[in-house]
UniProtKB/TrEMBL annotation:
Compositional bias annotation for Basic and acidic residues: 1098-1109
GO BP terms in the entry: mRNA processing; RNA splicing
Function, in words: Functions as a recycling factor of the spliceosome, a machinery that forms on each precursor-messenger RNA (pre-mRNA) and catalyzes the removal of introns. Chaperones the re-annealing of U4 and U6 snRNAs (small nuclear RNAs) released from previous rounds of splicing, an initial step in reforming the U4/U6-U5 tri-snRNP (small nuclear ribonucleoprotein) that can reassemble into another spliceosome complex; this step involves binding U6 and facilitating the unwinding of the U6 internal stem loop, followed by base-pairing of U6 to U4.
InterPro entries: Euk_RNA-bind_prot, HAT, Nucleotide-bd_a/b_plait_sf, Prp24_RRM1, Prp24_RRM2, RBD_domain_sf, RRM_dom, RRM_occluded
CDD domains: RRM1_Prp24, RRM2_Prp24, RRM_SF
Name of the molecule in the record: U4/U6 snRNA-associated-splicing factor PRP24
Domain RRM: 626-700, 701-777, 793-870, 909-982
Annotated organism of origin: Neurospora tetraspora
Main subcellular location: nucleus
Gene Ontology MF terms: mRNA binding
Amino acid sequence: MASPVGEDNWVDFVDHQLRGATDLENRVKVIETFRRAVQAEPGSLKVWMAYCEYFWSLYSDCQPGSDAGWPLDEQHLGRETFTLDHALNLWQEGYEAVQYRLSDSHQLWNRWVSLEMELLARTATEAGVRRITHLYKNRLAVPHAAWDNTSQMFSSFLSEYNRANYESEMLHVTANARDAKRLYEMRDPWEMKLNQAQKAGDIAGIKAIMTEYIDWEIRQAKSKKDHHTLTNMRICLGLFSRALTGIMSSDEATWLNFLVFVSTWHSDVKMGRVKIPSVILPNMLDVLQRAVHHVPWSGTVWARYILAAEEAGLGFTDIERIKHAATSCAQLDRDGMGGVLEMYSAWCGYLKRTAMNPNATEEAVDLAEVGLPSALEDVRHWGKRRYGDAYQGDPNFRLEKILIQFLTEKKDDIDEARNVWEQLSGIPLHANSYDFWLAWFLWEMLVFASTKSKNRSPTPATVAQGLRVPSFATRVFIKALKVRTLDWPERIMDVYLQHCNDYELAETLREAQDTIYKTRKGVARRREREAAQAQAQAQAAYAAQAQTQAQAQAQHQPQQHQQQQQYQQQQSQDHPMTDAPQAGTSPGSKRKREDGPVDEADDGAKRAKSETIMGAAELKRDRENTSVFVRNLPEGITQTKLRQFFREYGHINNIDLQKSEGAPAVALIEFRSPEDARTALLRDGKSLGESVIQVSPATDCTLFVTNYPPEADEQYIRDLFKHCGDIHSIRFPSLKYNTKRRFCYVSFRDRSFAAAATQLDGKTLEGGKFKLQAKFSDPGHRQVRQGAQAEERELHVNNLPRAASEEDVEGLFQKAGKVVSVRLTRNMGGVSTGTAFVVMETKEEAAKAIEILDKVIFGNHPLKVEVSKPPTRKTTATSRADGEAEGSPESSASGSGPSHVSGPEIAARTIAILGIPDTMNDARVRSIVAPIGAINKLVLHPQHGGAVVEFADAATAGKASLVINSTEIEGGKKLRVGSVGQLFKEKAEKRIDRIDLPHQQPQKKQDNSKASKKGKTAAELMPPPPPIRRPPVLGKAGAKRGLGFVVPVSKAQKEQNAAAAATKEGSSSEKQVNGNGPSSSAVGPAAPAPPVAQKSNADFKRMFLEGKK
């Protein structure tokens, strides 16, 4: 009968056996079963509790005076078998097995210590008090969730049995328990998360939190900062026990994580890198035996079991027994032939290593000679039985490689090894793979190199010209190029030609060139056919999409007619794709600069040319047609490993690797050209690590999405398309050079998901205010903008009277046609700036308004009327109170006069928010700030990675500083609060979404004596100039004087100098003109000049008026 698996199954199994245990013999059998159960689940609290409770009940039942009803002879034997010492030792053994289960180990310990207390209450002895005191001290030194409760129990115990030493014992325990409390406090957040998930019944959440918790514990156990290495390791083992005896008992990834953890610690202890007793670590073979029982379908675990048995020095019979247990398991091929191949690879590797050992016996060699072909035959039959004729073997031909190595190196049977290669070449799975042919070629070259000095060579020698050539290696290429379905013939041809250049004779080289020339022509025609087929499939997909959209529009046309009219009316006022120009500026004239650093405008001017170049470069970067999806990636995959795996197939621009809990990682790899992307598809079905990856094109998987609400973030977009399929990534544009951009690219993991998402194209959002656009991304297509400004219906009116209202302007322009809207721009005081934007109903009416109203006198002001033009660039975004584009809250609401606000008052209620990503627009920033209080003005500065926010009062600004600081936003980034000056010193984060471009690192200062002179200019190589000595100014010590320095003057001296200047102004100026003043004297030392006072604005005004006279 097979043993149970899992703590629940063991408890049920023992409980069933226990119900039939009515005599002493059967009770002993139950104890033996319990012993097997704790060996199978050594960290199970449930099994240990049941075991200890049952043994204690047997001890109690066999005591004199018990009412259990045992016969006298069984009572006598039972007292000899189930003794008190055995029972207490069992409780201690169970506690030691589960003591580092932080969350629930107190259940067993509390029960144990309660029994100890009962015994002490019956016979209170000094030894008993010392024993329980020792138990409490040890328990309080171990981190656990119920530490406070345990401490309270110890306090009560001391109060009753050791009151004299109460204070000293408690002080001693508290001092020793500091580390235990600190270690648990570090883990308390994880325990709280697990408790919340358990209360909510969220199974997936529990697994995800437990996985993250385990990874964190592994890092703590390996940390060199914490000196509690042994305790951290034990806590990690306790957490693994909780996971592997609980909800994750059948999780293969967790078991592999545990195996690697234990194996690594064994290696560290063996090599002396960690100083802990090796007996503390679980035995590797015991752990693997438990693992194969819980996840019998894992070929990787079975392979590790065989390898660990070989490392432990077990004999052939024992290892063969493990192999037979694996093949007898009905679940080994549950996930396909991968597990079977993993296990057989470990088995064949063991046979090969045993036979190739220099001290190997004849029996070991015979076992390998028989066992290797037998294993190949077993796998072939297994695959045929499961998949029929569709099974073609292992894509990586691992078992065949082991057999070839054995035949080549141990048996020296080259012909038989070559026969294995020949058999593999007859299978389409291998014949179509260039990897197979290159592996065969390399083997032939190794054989050629190793047999040069031998008399007999498997490669025939060519007598002509005295050369020996590797003819068998050349024949491999000739045979490979005859396969019409070879996945990468270009690579084979390149290596073939290079090989013939290096080793072959002239005649063979010429024949190779002829063969390659003819083959290249055939490959070119094949590539053209493949491209035509791909284009036809794409066109069919586009046609199907257009037909589906047309049908959907026809069904919803009556309902959308009314919404369309409302949408057109709202577009004239607030079109989502055409934001209003900045307040107080004219699209045709220079714009008013925002409050900021002086060099911001210069930076923009310098960017004008670079932006054009960047735009052209982005058009060349066709992500949609140069990317591929790579699925089923192995655990622990990195970008570096992916680059190495695909580096032979083309230049990689970027890799977007997405990892999720409980699922294999998926990568989106962008190549330089579509040709490179198509070549990378040849890796489909290849093995990477322990997984067979899937490579598929990412064409038609990305959507261009726009016209969504301005406040929408990544989560909003995901929720919008969540029913369509898995989303790989969402890419928002940078707003550094244009803050009006509001669109994103949504990449789905399958073309069908993206096609389903296009059904939302035209969907109205927020009651018809926005009409969503979701179309397949096409980098060559430029969207035609809509709205009043794009349709030339919006007019820009300059030089209006300041007193003119919206009604006055509307009445004036009604002479030319119907006016849709009028918007006056106002300053912070609510006063009109004399500029307005007028939207007419048609383009013709706008042209008529220009014709009859341009240069017309209106309120003694000649008007300037012109078509409103979009700004060339907009590096900042401004929004006013309540989301308005213009006016202060007071002027916009009530139309009252200007409100005079001082500069310090505005500064007191203004803060700067730092750390804002350049993909976050002003509406999203406003949604974070608005709940705090009323906002007067918000200016977004993407180039500096922040925003300036003016609140209604200083109190709200102070509250916002506290709330916003350290607020976490998308991507785990945190906002900071600073001053406006600090903001303009910041630079936005540089995002480089290409791994082929180096990140610019700040240059480190080097010592000139150590710096290399290579590449320095002549000026840099010249010696430094000698120091210049300057004499003291004015020949006097003290404060510096002369040009550029002002002497401090007291208030009394200022008044005296001003009076003297007023009386002597005429004479002194005349003397200076004639050259007779003191300043013109060149003889003798100059008299000390009297201190000159700084002139005030009143002095300059008086001088200016006197000069006019």
